[in-house]
Specification:
Layout lengths: L9 E6 L4 H19 L2 E4 L18 H17 L4 E7 L6 H7 L3 E8 L5 H18 L6 H11 L1 E4 L2 E4 H8 L6 H6 L1 E2 L2 E2 L1 E5 L11
Length: 209
Amino acid sequence: LPDHSCQPLRWLLHLPAFADEMNKSRAIVAQQARQLAEQGWAVLIPDLYGCGDSAGDLSAARWPLWQQDLCKLIGLLQQLGVERLSLWGLRLGCLLVLPLLRSSPLAIERLILWQPLLDGQRAMTQFLRLRTAAGLTGGATETLDHLREYLQCEQQLEVAGYNLPLPLLLAIEAESLMSVGALVTLTARDQPLSVEWLEVARQPERGLL
């Protein structure tokens, strides 16, 4: 939060990255939040259910539960008299943007997307590859098809130290931000929606999509 003598000028809700990407980004996210607080922003950085320091285990986490918890948090801000809010998504957290735009009780005036994962199915495929890559070093020959078959049977799978439940995987795979036009044309309470998209790329001419 800004200095207690000052009323926050703007409110920002962080939508965190997933699994180890969230852990590795904590320091830079906290540093950015402190800098924004010095500029008058109030920044909220929640740990989603089953992640970080929150209650529960990832095996019990569900995509709709994350959306509901975030909406409850936004509802608490509304009770405090907050009228407008910005969303700051990082990696997989960016996929929570569209559901929140549809269900937020507050007007969303700005989206800040850091290195967003645009397609949930591709994101989960990349996550599962952490398991296949680890298996190669130990002589295992697991494939993505094998892992998905195992998930269907057992309903969860350990990947890089995280117990990934099948319902969470399927829900994430159903999300997509592949259309920039869909974001730009959305409005928040009849107000234009500002989208700030930040990516680090080796080839600047590559474009966002």
